[in-house]
Design a protein that fits this description.
The chain is an alpha+beta fold. The protein has one domain (about 30-95). Helices cover about 15% and strands about 20% of the residues. It is built from two helices and five strands; from the N terminus they run H-E-E-E-E-H-E. It has helices at about 5-15, 70-75; strands at about 35-40, 45-50, 55-60, 65, 80-85. A three-stranded antiparallel sheet has the order 4-1-5. A hairpin with a 5-residue loop joins strand 2 (about 45-50) and strand 3. The radius of gyration is 25 Å and the shape is rod-shaped.
Length: about 100
């Protein structure tokens, strides 16, 4: 049986002597605080209540709305909504 050359013992000693450092959570700065445009792909109309209290009303298939950055997570849970590139100058009424 071959020996590991005391590498295992050296590794254990090294891990005991060096304190564990917490790693920072990496966030995507491009997505923080930015609103998104969602397009409705369903067959009927859809109303979604965001965490901000805003009600987003998609009146039919292809309808696009600009969504507050705080409501984006809730919108992503809807299977008939997809994120699309922003359309300059196009806004919709939020109830």
């Amino acid at each position: 049986m071959s020996c590991c050359g005391n590498k295992r013992a050296a590794w254990r000693q090294q891990t005991k002597s060096s304190p564990h450092q917490a790693s920072e959570v990496q966030t995507r700065p491009a997505e923080q605080g930015q609103s998104k445009v969602f397009e409705y792909t369903g067959a009927t109309s859809l109303k979604v209540l965001g965490v901000t209290g805003k009600i987003y009303h998609f009146q039919g298939k292809g309808d696009k709305l600009q969504v507050d950055h705080q409501d984006v997570f809730a919108m992503r849970a809807e299977r008939d909504l997809i994120v699309v590139p922003e359309i300059p100058g196009k806004t919709a009424t939020i109830l």
